[in-house]
Amino acid sequence: MRYKRLGNSDLVVSVVGLGTWAIGGDFWGSVDDALSIKTIQRAIDCGINLIDTAPAYGNGHAERIVGEAIKGRRDKVIIATKCGVLRDGPRFIRTLKPETIRKEIDESLRRLGVDVIDLYQIHWPDKNTPLEDSVNELVKLRQAGKFRYLGVSNFDTKLMEQIISMTDIVSLQPQYSLLERSIEKDVLPFCREKGIGVLTYGSLGGGILTGKFKERPKLEKGDHRDRFYPFFHEPLWSKAMQLVEALREIAYEVGKPVAHVAINWVNQQEGVTSALVGAKTPEQAEQNAGAGEWELSEEHLKRIEAAYKNIFGSDGVD
Q1: Which of residues 13 and 91 earns the better pLDDT score?
Q2: 113: closest CA among 45, 52, 73, 64?
Q3: How far apart are CA 254 and CA 261, in angstroms?
Q4: Which of 91, 87, 71 shows the shortest CA–CA distance to 79?
Q5: Are 240 and 306 in contact (CB under 8 A)?
Q6: Residue 167: how many CB atoms within 10 A of its CB?
Q7: In CATH terms, is domain 3-207+271-295 a member of 3.20.20.100?
Q8: What is the mean pLDDT of the chain?
Q9: pLDDT average, residue stretch 159-174
C-alpha cells in the first residue's frame, strides 16, 4: 500500500481509503453487520488505514459498526467522520448550528468508542447558518481535544476561501471519478495551490466503474444509489459503459481488476491524496486495497483520457 501525507497535517493516509456509506444499511441495500465488521478489519489488515464515515450513514449505524471493528486496532487507523447532516426518517437535513455540532461530535465519539477524532469534516454547507458561527464552535471543540484536524466536504472554492480566512483546514472531500470530473475546473487547482488534501468519494461512480454491470441494474429494495449518481440513467449510462470497455482493455493488459484502473486513475491525478472506496464484503475490501500496490503508466493515462474525450467530448459529464 502506498501512503501520502494529508494536506498540511501530520496524518499519513493510505491512497485507498474505506468509505462506509454502504454499511449504514439505509441507502445501498441490505447489509450484514457481522460481515461489515469483518470487511473493515480485512481492509485494515490489507494496509488501508483511512476509514471515512458519518452520522448520516444509517443515522449513526455506520459509526457504531466502525467502532466495533476498530476495537483493539485504534492505533492502526485514521478515523474521519463528519457533522452537519441529520436524519429525519428518509430526509437528510443540513444544519451547522453550533449547538447541533456540539451534540453531534459527542455522539460520534461515543458511537466510535474513541477519545479523539483524527479528521472532523463539515459534511455539507448549510446556507441558513453563518459559517463563522459554525467555525467558532468547531475551533472550541478542537481546542477541547475532541478532534485533531478539520476538513470540509462538498465545498466550492468560494466557501473554502471563506473558511480558510477563519481557521485551518487540511482536506476537502468532493465527488470525483472518471464519470464526475467537475472539480478539475477550479476546485482541484485551488486545493493544490493551498496545500489542501483531497479525499475523493464516488471514486467508482457508485460501482459502475468496477465493470461488474453488463446492463443497467435493477437495484435491490433499499438500494437508492441511482438517485445520487446520474450515471445510472441514460444518456450517461451508455457512455459510461463505453468508458468501462476502455478501462477493461487496460485491466486485461496489466492483469488487474477494472476497479483498480478506475481507482488508480483518480489517485494519479495531481492533488488527490486518497480515493475513498466502499466495500460490503472482505473480498471487496481486499481487492480495492490491491489498487494501492501499483500505478498506471503514462501511456495508460493518456489512453484513458483519449477514450474519455472521444466518448464524452471535451466538456465531459460535468
Answers
A1: 13
A2: 64
A3: 9
A4: 71
A5: no
A6: 12
A7: yes
A8: 93
A9: 98
